[in-house]
Amino acid sequence: MTYTPFSIYGAERRSRWLITVDHAANFVPEDINGGDLGLDPTDMSRHIAYDVGARGTSLRLGELLDAPVICANWSRLCIDPNRGADDPTLVMRLYDGTIIPGNRDVDDAEIERRRATHYQPYHNALESLAAEREDVVIIAMHSFSPKLNGRAPRPWEIGVLHAPKEDRFGKALIAELEQESDLTVGDNEPYNGWLPGDSIDQHALQPGRLNALIELRHDEIDTPEGQNAWAERLAPILQSTLANSGL
């Protein structure tokens, strides 16, 4: 199969929702260090390389919400689509204690080449999808590790990240999720809700579009059964949030 920097599923779907998956894949394209960053396959299957379970969850969620889904098709270790173009962590040399050999000697020219051939085509396509509706609601799907090296276990099954520029939907979604008695919901956990130039900043905050970044703990969605279960749980919650908020 010929590599492309992104895939769009359900481009013909016409609801208000747009689902994005920045870290959908752990694939290294051939033009980046010969398709190998020098990591053991075990490391490439870890969260450092991609968001475990996010793609499968999002594809099912897109079906349920009648929403297009766009996925980046390369590993975040090649160049991170959820960082601003001038972010110093755009290409990581060290991640969660693991050295990335294929990035050790990466220079500015190579970073710019990766940005032009992988990062920018994905963002151009994402923006084209978002611009198709004035009332679009962008849902950025991610997953997080239950525990980073040397850190305490993370208690949240789900987190919602939001930023003050446009946080109405994100805050309304947290309120809906907190009605679920079996969930520990993170409010801007396990991360802060905004990095300048990240995907939500580029495509939602700067244009003023409704949005939420959803983080699922990846032990909840590391099987097809877990992915389907969470998609089927989230779809009605997202719909009721939108309806009840009047946004």
What does this protein structure show overall?
The chain is an alpha/beta fold. The chain has a single domain (6-245), classed as Zn-dependent exopeptidases (Aminopeptidase). 32% of the residues lie in helices and 16% in strands. The chain has 6 helices and 9 strands, in the order E-E-H-H-E-E-E-H-E-E-H-E-H-E-H. The chain has helices at 41-44, 54-65, 108-130, 168-177, 199-205, 224-245, and strands at residues 6-9, 17-21, 69-72, 94-95, 98-99, 137-144, 158-161, 185-187, 210-217. It is globular. It starts with 5 loop residues before the first strand and ends with a helix.
Domain count: 1
Strand content: 15-25%
Which range best describes the helical content: under 10%, 10-25%, 25-40%, 40-55%, 55-70% or over 70%? 25-40%
Report the CATH architecture. Answer: 3-Layer(aba) Sandwich
CATH superfamily: Zn-dependent exopeptidases
CATH class: Alpha Beta
Instruction: Output the radius of gyration.
Output: 17 Å
Question: Unreliable segments (pLDDT under 50, ≥5 consecutive)?
Answer: none
SS class: alpha/beta
Assign an overall shape.
globular
Strand order of the largest sheet: 1-3-2-6-9-7-8
Note the total helix count: 6
* Order of helical and strand elements: EEHHEEEHEEHEHEH
User: Please, what is the average pLDDT?
Assistant: 96
Q: What is the CATH fold-level name?
A: Aminopeptidase
Query: What is the straight-line distance between the termini?
Result: 41 Å
Task: Please report the total strand number as a whole number.
Answer: 9
Major sheet size, sense and barrel closure: 7 strands, mixed
